[in-house]
Amino acid sequence: MTLHAHETDFAEMKPLASLSDETCGNVIGILTDIDDTITTDGRLPASSYAMLERLADNGLLVIPITGRPAGWCDMIARFWPVAGIVGENGALAMRYDGKARKMRRLTHMDEATRLKNRKRLDALSKTILDDVKGAALASDQQYREADLAIDFCEDVPPLGKTDIDRITDHFKNSGAKCKVSSIHVNGWFGDWDKLSMSRRFLQEEFGIDLNGSKNKFIYCGDSPNDAPMFDFFPHACGVANVADFLDRMEALPRYIAPSRGAEGFVEIGNRILSARGRRSVR
Q1: Which of 8, 84, 129, 144 lies most in the core, judged by the most C-beta atoms within 10 Å?
Q2: What does R_g of the chain's alpha carbons equal in angstroms?
């Protein structure tokens, strides 16, 4: 059953405690957003990192699915306790093969197309910043390959809903796709999102047909760019701050953690590990 924000509300999402032992026991992977899901106030606390490690040590595929840039993804794939990462809202995916000392990459565009689209995005960025006062290029834009990230609250004073809507309108009017995260509006020319690359990545790198295995994954997220994942995964979990975006969500998670951000993610991880008979992270 798909939960659409215009049909339901925060109170109708099930509490995390109702996520069954059977479901947790059948899980083979944890897919998770990064910003404001495993972080709090822009920081990755030790408890979240320890939870990622504990889940991986329990034999689960742990894969961040993020809007963050390719440059960050290279570091995360190499150094974090994860099986791989999907970045730039699905434009690319990376998996570091430690034995071969090789970064395996999937992308949606050839280089010529990427460069052509980058010129279009650069022109669009000027239009947006000229029109929406207070908006800025995301500080991580220089590390991006396929998208344009407009900051509306990470490193600038928070903009209101009207300004955020104006940013998304610019993307849509130019023919670009866009998604709103908890900190940025991300836009790109191309037909992908977090879900489409997650499907491809799991199939090509792990031999997993996600369409037939979605009951065996739990997705964790917090904001509108997670909606395709919330809609697809029947056991998707939101951290409590998903409630901040009810008026912008096209789909909501089935379960909701008691706490916001990193603390909520740790609660989700502890629920899974507890059901699987493992010691919880404190």
Answers
A1: 144
A2: 18
Q: Which two tokens stand for residue 148?
A: 């344009």
DSSP-derived 3-state class of residue 174? coil
274-to-31, 55, 107, 177 alpha-carbon distances in Å: 18, 11, 36, 40
For residue 144, which of 240, 66, 83, 202 has the smallest C-alpha distance?
A: 66
DSSP alpha helices (H): ranges in the chain?
A: 21-26, 46-57, 70-79, 111-131, 161-173, 194-206, 210-213, 227-232, 261-275
Dihedral sign for Cα atoms in the order 207, 230, 3, 189 = negative
Q: What is the tens place of the pLDDT at every residue in 42-52?
A: 999 999 999 99
Give tens-digit pLDDT for 255-264: 999 999 999 9
CA distance linking residue 171 with residue 167, whole number of Å: 7
Cα distance between residue 134 and residue 151, in whole Å: 9
Q: What is the DSSP string of 209-270?
A: -HHHHGGGEEEEE-SGGGHHHHHH-TT-EE-GGGGGGGGG-SS--SEE-SS-HHHHHHHHHH
Per the CB < 8 A criterion, the answer to whether 73 and 94 are in contact is: yes
* Average pLDDT across the chain, whole number: 94
Work out the average pLDDT over 59-67: 97
